[in-house]
Write a structure and sequence with these properties.
This protein is an alpha/beta fold. The protein contains eleven helices and eight strands. An eight-stranded parallel beta barrel has the order 1-2-3-4-5-6-7-8, surrounded by five helices.
Length: about 300
Amino acid sequence: MNTSSAAQNTAGQLNRRQWLATGLSSLAGLAGMHTTHTQAAAQEPLQARLKFSSWLKPVRGDLKQQLDFVERSGFEAVELRGTIANNKQSWLKALKDRPLKVSGMDWGHFTLMVSDSAAERQKAVDSLKAAIDAAHELSAPVLVCVPPRYGQPTAVPDAATSRKILLETLTPLGELAAKAGTCIGIEPVRRKSVNCLHTLVDGASFCRDTKSPGFCIVADFCIMMEEETNLTGAMLSGGSHIHQVHLANRGRNLPGENAEDERPFLEGFRGLKMIGYNGYCSFEGGQIETYEQNVGKCMSFLRDLWARA
């Protein structure tokens, strides 16, 4: 086994132990959580609402045509991708006088933030600061960020070290994000791709450890179908830290395009309704050949599941 593979295996084993320890702690509090939710519901109904947003990757045409289609299809918002910080004026102009909101902005992954190069770490910090400024101007409530990825030119340390560095580096930026009216959204990703923060309970634990309101979780159905045992429980473990949801099935296609999609989305929506989630559910799946003709059916499929959840 080479050094890289050994490091990944060690990280995976460590994260499983951490997940189990954290998960057992969370499970111990679920009974109390149920009582709390029941009491809260008796005092004030949870204001859960299904709000759709879309990314633009699978939509044909230039930017105006893409936004026209998203608006015409009944989406309330759009999730922005690319180097937004360098193009914020173009986005402000494109979205002017449209009812569409910005549900979130994609920043990238934290790999450089755990680099052994101080210059690379500072470059990543400066990039995230610029993205926070852009999110403020575009009124984007979430900056989507992915944990350190394997397979990048910059090697990543073991899981525990990566988490420690991220916590120390990101916490001050969380305060900056909160003042800017946005949130650094940690998106858990499958363990074969990143070396830490694979589940919603991992993300919630990280958010709590920052002790800052400038952090949240992005819950991705495609990832959860691989990493989580039960999607209702996963949403409960993320709780109020969940500020953004990505909608895609296990194959990164539109929900409802696979026969087995009903159960996981029903489970996940049930959890979202239990926590009173009213943030955006943003489409992050679909192919350019079929997106435009299938997205309406997909929205109907999801609205039906939401009503049944």
